[in-house]
Amino acid sequence: MSAFLLSVHVLAAILTIGPVAIAASMFPRFARLAPAAPDEPGRVAAVRILHRITRVYAVIGVLVPVFGLATAASLGVLGDRWLIVSMILTVAAAAMLIALILPGQKRVVGALDTGESVPDGAAHRLGMLTGVFNLLWAIVVVLMIYRPGSTTGVGR
To answer: Which pTM was predicted?
Structure first.
């Protein structure tokens, strides 16, 4: 059962967190380009699509910690430090996404939809936040592979 849970956890991470990381990373660039060429509706459409991908895959991404916790419970590692740190970083990344990145993207999309100017520095701020978000996930991935005290021999 542990192998099944781990497989679903890893697949969920790849198929949900990956698209969020990529779409959120691409968003600031297109948010800067869209107002520069208002006669090109494809740029505004790209911003909308990137926001939708980020939002939808973020909701589906809840599967990652759910199956991660189930996997950890089945392996008996819920109290291990590397897992606790991973969970804290996951919560921090999720909080950034929910509280800062998605609302920031929504404000930019709203401004573009109403023809208003995109708030100064909004794209730059989103780029910075997304970079931190991606860094948190990269650390989590390293911790998941390295797993101090692992019986696989990795990290020894």
So the answer is: 0.90
